[in-house]
Amino acid sequence: MNLEVTVSHVQKTCQGCYQNSREKETHQFSTYLLIRDGQLQRNLQKTFATPKKSSAPCRSCGAGEVWKRRNLGTQSLYLVMVFAATPI
């Protein structure tokens, strides 16, 4: 199964000055996934939308404690699966 997840933008939050910034980012991640016990949505959120520390400092105050979070283009409870079938 081939699944594509689109990241619409990245939100960055500075822990020093609490300034929020948004950066456009549109990527498509294609991967082969094995669905087991309905864990697909939870695994996607954990992989792509978990906040992570940014390596770049804050543009406003220069602090190094900036967290970024990707917002997934897929916001629904159900994901659209794309199957590629070859006729026999």
From TrEMBL:
This is Uncharacterized protein. The lineage of its organism: Eukaryota, Metazoa, Ecdysozoa, Nematoda, Chromadorea. It comes from the Eukaryota.
